[in-house]
Amino acid sequence: MTRDEVRQAVVSILADIAPDEDVSSIKDDVTLREQMDLDSMDFLDIVMELRKRFNVEVPESDYQQLVSMASCVQYLQPLLKDRQLAS
Amino acid sequence: MKYDVIIIGSGLSGLAAGIRLAMFDKKVLIVEKHTVVGGLNSFYIRKHRTIDVGLHAMTNYAPKGARNTPLGKLLKQLRFSHDDFRLHEQEMSEIRFPDKCLRFTNDFDLLQQEVREQFPDAMDGFMKLVAKIESFDELSLTTSEWTSARDILSDYISNPVLIDMLFCPLMYYGNASERDMDFYQFVIMFKSIFMEGFAKPVGGMYYILNLMVDRYKSLGGELRMGVEVQSINSAKGVFESLTLAGGEHLQADAVISSMGRIETFKRCEPALVNEADESLAGQVSFMESLFALGREPKDLGYERSIVFFCTEDRFRYEVPTNLIDISSGVLCCPNNFKYPEPLSEGMIRLTNLASFGLWDALPRRDYIDAKKEWRTRALENLFTFFPDFRDSVVFLDSFTPKTILKYTGHLNGAVYGSPAKAKDGTTPVRNLFICGTDQGFLGIVGATLSGISMANLHILQKKVAPSA
Ligand SMILES: Cc1cc2nc3c(=O)[nH]c(=O)nc-3n(C[C@H](O)[C@H](O)[C@H](O)COP(=O)(O)OP(=O)(O)OC[C@H]3O[C@@H](n4cnc5c(N)ncnc54)[C@H](O)[C@@H]3O)c2cc1C
After folding, report:
1. Helix-strand-coil percent breakdown of chain A, rounded to 5?
2. Which of A6, A47, B116, B465 has its CA 20 to 30 Å from the CA of residue B384?
């Protein structure tokens, strides 16, 4: 996956987790908690969706890497570089 | 074949737990002894009417976009959009006592204003109580000591009528204990009723339950109806298998039971003697009568969505010494919600506290007569306060604590389960967990959140220990 595809993958997870949210307008540098009111239950869901869709494990000590879209992409791209974005 | 998880019961908590587990590819089975899903909040069909068993209203209403509320969390966790639930808010409800009346809507300001007008001396204390409630973490999953809500309230409010008026709706909609309430439960109910509020889904529970069952099945979850769990078998304190009535055995790594805590322990093999003590079971149950009307409730003088009433000076929330207690109750007019289109028929529902023991002791013939007699008595008392609607009734039906026991298996027909809750959902048996009413979150939204929280905490966030 390219950086763009990783971003797309995260956006698609967020769209699933928060069906009432407009995910097209997410700003990369603002925390997700702030933009989407995400709580700890939601971050767990992001982690579980990553495991389910791409078989990547995010250890608890790395959860803070998921704080914004930019940091998600930064952190996940190396882990996902060999994975395909499902169409 | 071995399941990752088997869930006992297809009430709201069981279905919600099932959706969460199936969503993350667990091999999951729900077993339900009844032939209809929904448990305490199911529906039945009589004379071409689909009637909700429980639903007066869903508490915890929050508008679309309020994501950090119980309803918002529930929707996100189950991947529903707010629109999927087709919720429409109440118009206005009230608490009516002999000399006082407090109206409230889903805007908390109205209740505050009403308290200011009706109980000016108590306003200061009321606002301090509200501040305490707002800062309280009622959703914590760690069990704490039972704390008397009456004691805490009396620190803030000295007027006994106001205290009774606040307790009346909160107890009727969610208190497993008699007379007093655990403070965390008081906070849950205060927020869910006064600060969040009421709404109803178009299509009632039939619609919501179908939505959940469809979601569960589309994620690959299995559901077996008409299947009763006979025993929950463990070895050396670790769960091993389930035996169904009829003898079939089912294997799983873990079980989540929504039957109720003591109800679950009673089925454990080897027996959990101390835990299965029935004297700890809940006692609070209700008689509910519903009246289909040839007219709109409003045309008969029933303007409110829900009325919590008491016709005597003091409100008593306890097992009555008669079959039912006619001196207080809940009146619900499903028509008086902000639906886009009027319902097909007028309806009024009436709930009164009832004694399981007295109903249970009646022989069959007397039971049917007693239902009629006590329904009549309840109405006669009601009509000293409210307009008479008897001439407009086109269909009526009543159910009692016995009916609730029969269809849900909750001991004593206790709608809110046992006063002793298992907030973290664990049991003396490893890999056997409790969800729903007896975990401590109840009502429609509460039970659903309970199923979600227990599936998350015990299964999804944890590797299930392999059975020995
Ligand atoms: C008359 C009434 C009015 C109510 N009104 C409202 C309201 O207006 N608003 C609101 O929010 N809440 C209301 N409630 C409360 C709400 O319905 C409950 O809190 C909620 O539905 C509880 O869900 P649960 O999953 O915990 O338990 P349950 O719904 O009881 O689920 C347990 C399930 O387990 C099944 N089961 C039991 N034993 C076995 C066994 N051995 N094997 C297999 N299956 C078994 C039962 O059949 C049942 O389906 C009302 C309840 C009643 C009875």
Report:
1. 65, 0, 30
2. B116
Identify the CATH number of the domain defined by range A3-80: 1.10.1200.10
The neighbouring-strand residues paired with B200 are: B88
Q: Please give the CATH topology (third level) of the domain spanning B2-81+203-277+419-460.
A: FAD/NAD(P)-binding domain (3.50.50)
What's the pLDDT tens digit per position in B90-118?
999 999 999 999 999 999 999 999 999 99
Mean pLDDT of chain A: 90
Report the pLDDT value the prediction gives residue B225, as an integer from 0 to 100.
Answer: 98
Q: What is the pLDDT of residues B50-66, one digit of tens each?
A: 888 888 999 999 999 88
Query: What is the rounded CA–CA span in Å between residue B5 and residue B150?
Result: 40
Q: Using pLDDT thresholds of 50, 70 and 90, give the confidence band for residue B138.
A: confident
Q: For A62-82, how does the pLDDT look when each residue is reduced to its tens digit (9 = 90+)? A: 999 999 999 999 999 999 988
The binding-site residues of ligand 1, defined as CB within 6 angstroms of any ligand atom, are B 8-14, 31-34, 39-41, 54-59, 228-229, 258-259, 286, 288, 404, 408-410, 415, 436-437, 442-444, 447
pLDDT of residue A87: 52
Look at the block and give the residue holding tokens 């944890």. Answer: B462
Q: From chain B, which residues contact A within 8 Å (Cβ)?
A: 24-25, 64-65, 67-68, 72-73, 75-77, 79-83, 456, 460-461
Main-chain phi, psi angles of A15, to 5 degrees: -65, -35
- Asked if B447 and B436 touch (Cβ cutoff 8 Å), the reply is yes
In this complex, is the C-beta atom of A5 within 8 Å of any C-beta atom belonging to chain B? Answer: no
Segments making up each domain of chain A, as ranges? 3-80
Q: Within an 8 Å CB–CB cutoff, is residue A48 touching chain B?
A: yes
For residues B385-404, average pLDDT: 96
CA B405–ligand 1 middle distance (angstroms): 10
Q: Which of A40, A45, A48, A58 is nearest to A18 (CA)?
A: A45
